[in-house]
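Deliverable D5.2: sample structural annotation.
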Amino acid sequence: MVHIHLKRSYTHLIQFMVVNGMSSAMNPLENAMKGAAIFSKQVQVFTYTVVYLRYVRDQSILNVLFPLLLISLTRFANNVEATYFDVETSEETGLTLKELLAKTIHVLQVLFVVQSLYAVVYHYFINLESDVCRWVYGYLFTDILGEFDCSLRGKTVLFVLDVIVLLCQLQVTTDRLTRLDNGRPVNLQVFPLRKYGILSILRTSTTGLQTEDWELTISAPLRSSDSGVISSRTNSGGFNEVAYGSVR
């Protein structure tokens, strides 16, 4: 009896050590995911701030609408991914969501191209005196925006602001497509993140892309606390023949 009791105690001790060891190992991962989620939100706030500064500079409506529309669309794409990985999402719905995500990425690419072309045309035809320098009253950021010496460096300020807005949009798009709101990383097979970084959205090929040709993977299911789980959908639309809670 004493031997059995000691054996059970030893087994419980081993289980306790394993569980605590796994929890300790997961802490850095959880912290990294939280940090990534916070960073993504900070970049988004910074983007809105720069867009506002850009609008204050010359009151250009289209230069505001393009970034806001694009950021809203990235939010939609992120929601599609979250729904895709929801354990309550059926296989048939999963295929539809993949198709919708591919179309959303294609629209994002078109928006980036259209916005860039519009910016080039805008800077080519802009008239500082009539389009920019006349807005000289009521500004909150006079020293930053430089309206008191508009004719000297007005175009430079506009160009710098447009470049910053574009880079911020690329960063927000990359974050939204490769991470869920909680910071959990998503691997989008058609998105060459490791090779092109924030320019991946411009290098993603979506023309003629079929839902069976690519996969979405995630480190763990959206509604599970199990660690070390990889969830994905295969060509048939199922969950890679690995049940939630198992380890690959």
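Annotation notes: The two ends are 39 Å apart (CA to CA). Residues 32-176+188-207 form one domain.
The annotation will be released with the project's public dataset once the embargo ends.
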